[in-house]
Specification:
Elements (H helix, E strand, L loop, with lengths): L1 H41 L7 H15 L7 H9 L9 H14 L7 H13 L9 H20 L2 H10 L2 E2 L7 H17 L17 H35 L5 H17 L9 H7 L7 H15 L7 H15 L7 H17 L2 H12 L4 H14 L10 E2 L3 H20 L1
Parallel strand pairs: 1-2
Helix pairs in contact: 1-4, 1-5, 1-6, 1-8, 2-4, 2-10, 3-6, 4-5, 5-6, 6-7, 6-8, 7-8, 7-15, 9-12, 9-13, 9-14, 9-16, 11-13, 12-13, 13-14, 14-15, 14-16, 15-16
């Protein structure tokens, strides 16, 4: 009994520390990012400096950050096979790189940065405690989940995300206790420090019916194919630039040069930065199909050439505007389809359908739960096995897992009757 109490006391302490570090990092990041976004909006001419900003990011990472260039994939690799502690400088490097990307107009996200900061800072606890390899896996998962939940203001989603993102076809609940504490502590700390979490209009939630669920399943399959197309496009840009450009700092420089020309050609500058106002607008009025197509292209070019920031908010932008636009051909309210796309496209691209279902409920209310579950899992099954995180491991092929679930559900009546 004494050993059990000692073990849980240790993990409560470590989880609280992990959540606190993740919450502080998320708050500093979100407040700084809000400043960067407002500064760019007030001085749009600085977008023309995006190529130089890209070169600076590329040079710093090439010169001093080769060991952390893997980003989220490095974290996943360490969870799978712990070898060495993630360097402390991952946190300040990704923070600075993301702020520079957004200040000068790169079309990137923010939650990927919070995940890297949360996990890398949690990993530094080894300096004060004797941490074994298996314990590092738990700390990395809880730190990543806490960073995710604190950044989007959805702690329950953060609890699941840190564990679900590791494998495809298998949710490992090995760190549930620690993720639960870390995620809620991280969210509380970030909120207390004044993190500016985005607010979104609430969708109209209809009464449930088989017909609506079938239409939502169709929408979910489209969300999944969109997620797959985005992942393929981003990886293709990475491969292309890696093959033809041998000096790494030139990749974001040339990518930034192409981006500013395309931004000028497009004319509206609605695809620079996060695009939160346009996500909010898509929940209030029907969007154009141009929005998800162009945002996908601009974000793939931004992230694929080496700018920092991640893909979450761009995928939310893509999903929300796509869902809103789909209402012209799918007889479901645009606001509901937009809210479902908000969660489902990222759920498919990141292979985290359960975390994204919970996220949708936290942001849009519990009544969206059944609809989000259908949309997110349909997106997951149609998005393929190659998502935005290359280091995810396939525990079981998606179709085999689905057949396993169908078989298991089919055996339930026999089990109850026997």
């Amino acid at each position: 009994m004494k050993d059990v109490l000692k073990k849980y006391s240790r993990w409560i302490l470590l989880s609280v520390l992990s959540g606190t570090l993740s919450g502080i990092a998320a708050a500093v990041f979100l407040i700084s990012l809000d400043w960067a976004t407002k500064t760019r909006d007030l001085n749009p001419v600085i977008i023309w400096l995006l190529p130089l900003a890209g070169f600076c990011i590329g040079w710093v990472y090439h010169r001093f950050g080769k060991d952390i260039a893997g980003g989220n994939n490095l974290i996943l690799d360490e969870i799978h096979d712990p070898k060495k502690t993630i360097p402390f400088h991952m946190a300040p490097f990704i923070l600075a790189g993301t702020l520079i990307t957004h200040l000068f107009g790169g079309s990137a996200g923010r939650e990927g940065t919070a995940v890297q900061m949360g996990a890398s800072l949690s990993d530094q606890l080894y300096r004060f405690f004797k941490i074994e390899a298996e314990e590092r896996k738990i700390l990395l998962a809880s730190g990543a989940g806490a960073g995710f939940g604190a950044a989007i203001g959805a702690p329950w989603a953060g609890v699941i995300f840190g564990m679900e993102v590791i494998n495809i076809g298998h949710l490992r609940l090995f760190a549930l206790f620690q993720c639960l504490i870390a995620s809620f502590v991280g969210y509380a700390v970030a909120t207390l420090l004044g993190s500016p979490h985005s607010q979104y209009p609430m969708p109209v939630i209809p009464e449930m019916s088989i017909q609506i669920l079938l239409w939502i399943a169709l929408a979910g399959s489209i969300f999944g194919l969109t997620a797959k197309a985005f992942s393929m496009m981003t990886h293709a840009v990475e491969r292309f630039t890696g093959h033809f450009i041998k000096y790494p700092p030139l990749k974001p420089f040339l990518g930034g040069l192409l981006l500013v020309v395309l931004f000028y050609w497009e004319g509206s500058y609605r695809y620079v930065g996060l695009g939160i106002p346009f996500i909010q607008s898509a929940l209030e009025q029907v969007s154009s199909f141009n929005d998800p197509v162009l945002k996908s292209f601009f974000t793939s070019l931004t992230v694929g050439t080496g700018f920092k920031g991640g893909e979450f908010i761009p995928l939310v932008f893509i999903g929300t505007t796509l869902g809103s636009a789909l209402s012209v051909i799918i007889p479901v309210s645009f606001s509901l389809l937009a809210a479902l796309g908000f969660a489902a496209v990222f759920g498919g691209a990141a292979n985290t359908p359960l975390a994204c279902t919970i996220m949708a409920m936290e942001i849009f209310g519990y009544r969206i739960g059944p609809f989000a579950l259908v949309a997110c899992f349909m997106s997951y099954y149609f998005s393929g096995h190659r998502g935005i995180y290359k280091s995810q491991r396939i525990y079981m092929k998606k179709h085999k897992k689905l057949l396993w679930w169908i078989s298991w559900l089919g055996e339930l009546p026999k089990r109850f009757l026997s």
